[in-house]
Amino acid sequence: MTSTTHPASPATARAVPAARQATKVRYGILALLFIITTINYADRATLSITGPALRGEFGFDAVQMGYIFSAFSWAYVAAQIPGGWLLDRYGARRVYAASICLWSVFTALQATVGLYAGMVSAVVSLFVLRFCVGLAESPAFPANAKVVASWFPTKERGTASAIFNSAQYFAAVVFTPIMAGLTHWLGWHHVYLWMGALGIVLAAVWMKVIRSPAKHPSVNAAELAHIADGGGLVHMGEGEEAREAAKAKQDTRAHLRQLLTDRMMVGVYLGQFSINVLTYFFLTWFPVYLVQERHMSILKAGFMASLPALCGFLGGVLGGVISDWMIRRGHSLTVARKTPIVAGMLLSVSMIFCNYVDSEWLVVGLMALAFFGKGIGALGWAVVADTAPKEIIGLSGSLFNMFGNAAGIVTPIVIGYILKTTGSFNGALLFVGLNALVTVVAYLFIVPEIKRIVLKTA
Which positions, given as ranges, span the membrane (predicted)? Predict the structure, then answer.
């Protein structure tokens, strides 16, 4: 890999002879984002894997489990706006490192649930610790979007966003069997301890590796020019966020008002909420569905859940590739983003048909098809990178994430009440599948042309 001292501005970078081969540092940055996001989602999914064991040990009922599942999202949603402000003020490097470290500590502490049963119930202690994990994770995805907007030109951004977003499925492919095995052979406590330790190591790696493109020592002038000429915000690094905010006469309330009254963003927010209904079903109740409704063992459910996750991962990467390919073929950004989203979410409706089949392989096959479609359609973060005002990428991403992850509050609780009322997952699958259609409606009839928003000045 060539390493040269690069100039301070993209204009100078463009003067470099075209014959000089560009470095590929941005792919290493994307790989790190993918790994961290994989651990992020694995930590969210710990409770879904250990849930049956915890229910057996502490006697949680379905509604209590629903509220415990939702604890993460109450905090995650509430902290999105402050988290976005922190990202714009202090930069992704420092804020994300602190986020990774804190959520890993709170993940490890969940292993202590039950040790202080005389002082506080297991329900309350687990709810509080899950709440703290959500609070700590709140800057994660806005930081991912900020880094992608900085490191990737527009024509590569769909694939880059799809890759880091597909980590949610890869986490299930890799860690669901591992966590199920740990629970089965060593006990549920070990899941939280090992995942917490892994996250703390990654926080140190992030601090050592990450820089903005304009400051990274391994980026040469040719790569910097490639990113900048294609629309990458190459100076969006440590300290630059604060200067951009000052130039824009930062008024958070006015900026929020503009985003919340923009028709395009309203449709995007609604679509992301409905997409995440599927996400949180998978992260919370899906393994319980396999154990309770389909009578699988915890170990078998862990391995069975990995197949839909693998299909979701493949669909997630494919959706971004298709979208960027359409841009290169001359299609508009709007068509290139909307087409995979609509087609993918229509495929996701197939999960409803699980209510009408009995064989395990058909159930898993239909779920695999549904999550393959969901993966193809999960391009919301690419849309954020395409539309966010450059001065407030962190804030814009946080607002998007807030609406999307409100589904993490609603979905586990609604499904918990459906189970308590009906004793069956049939209504739950109908609720989740119909939300896929809501996303289709949002992108076809509410979201107009997809383009970057320009902040209004006073």
Answer: none
What would the pLDDT profile of 210-221 be if each residue is shown by its tens digit?
888 888 888 888
Q: Is residue 452 part of a domain?
A: no
If one counts the domains in the chain, the total is 1
Q: CB under 8 Å to 348, separation ≥6 — which residues?
A: 278, 370, 371, 373, 374, 377, 433, 436
Q: Are 97 and 416 in contact (CB under 8 A)?
A: no
Separation between Cα atoms, residue 297 and residue 52, nearest integer Å: 10
d(CA 150, CA 10): 13
> In the predicted model, is pLDDT for residue 109 greater than 90?
yes
Residue 385 domain boundaries = 24-446
d(CA 305, CA 298): 10
The number of C-alpha atoms within 13 Å of 393 and in the hemisphere containing its C-beta is 30
CATH code for position 98: 1.20.1250.20
Cβ partners under 8 Å of residue 86, min gap 6: 95, 139, 394
Rounded Cα–Cα distance for residues 172 and 242 (Å): 37
Give domain status of residue 16, yes or no: no
Question: Is 46 a domain residue?
Answer: yes
In a domain, 456, yes or no: no
